[in-house]
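Table S2 (continued). Query chain:
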Amino acid sequence: MLMKWVCLFLCCFAALSSKAKIPISIETDIYNYAQQVLGKESIESIEHFKHPSCIRDVVEFILVQKAIKLGGLNLEYDFVLGDYDARNIRLIQHGLLLISFDSIWLNEASQYENDVFISEPVIRNGEFYAGIYVAPNKITELTPKIKNGITDFSFVTSEAWHTDVKTLTALKPKNLVIEADWLVMAKMVSSGWVDAMLAPFKPAQPFEYTGKNYKIRAIDGVKVALQDSRHFVVSKKHPLGNKTFKALQKGLKQLRQSGYIERAYKECGFLNPLVEDWQEIKAEVH
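Corresponding output:
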C-alpha cells in the first residue's frame, strides 16, 4: 500500500505543471454517500444538506473542495477508495497525501504540527455533542442506568479518536474496548458484545445507524459533550501543500462569514437543534 502511494505521489509531482489529478484517499461508503447527497448538484452549486445519507464526513468531503475552489485554486482529484481512516494522517505527514477530506480534532492535529498546516476550525470548541448509541433491543434496559453517568456501561471506541478516548476515560465507563474499524464497533454494539459507542446525531429521530449486520440507536434525552475543535490538515511536505493551505483558509473564511459552514453541519444533523434541551454528560478533560 505504501509503494502504491509513493508511485501516485511521484506521478503527481512530475506532472504538476500539466494539472495532474491529485490522489485523495476516501472511505468507500463516504464517497458513495456524497454522490447520493450531491445528486445532480456540483461541488460549487450545492447549498443544502437535508438528505438521509448526509453525515459529517459527507459535508466535509464537499466543504473542503468548495473552500479550496473559493480560495482560487482549481485542483482535480483522483479518489482512491478504501479503508484509510487510520492511515491518512501518516500519509499526510510524509507528503504522500496532500490533504484529508475528513477533519480531525485539534488535540490530535497539534501532535503533527511540524508536518501539517492546521486550518481554521470548521467545528468550534463547545459546538459538538455525541449520542450514546446502543442496540435497539437494549434501550429499555440501559436507559434508566444513564442517569448515573456511564459507569455501568461498557464502551467501544477507536484509539485514533483522541478526543473520544480522553472523554470516555474521564467519564469512567465499566470497560473501554479499543477497536480501529467503525463498522466493527457498530456490529459489536448491535450484537451486545459491548453496551455502547459514541456517534454523531443524524438529522431526524429516531437517531440510528443501520447497515449490513448492525443497527444501533441513540438513547433519548442524553448527549455527551466533546470539548475540542475540528480542523482540516494539509501536508507541509507535499509540493502543493502551501498553495492548497492558503486557498483552503481563504475559502473557509468566506464560507464561515456567509453562514454556510454552520448551516451545512446543522442540516446534516451533526450540530443538532433537536438535542438542545437534552441532559448533558460532560467530562473534566485536561
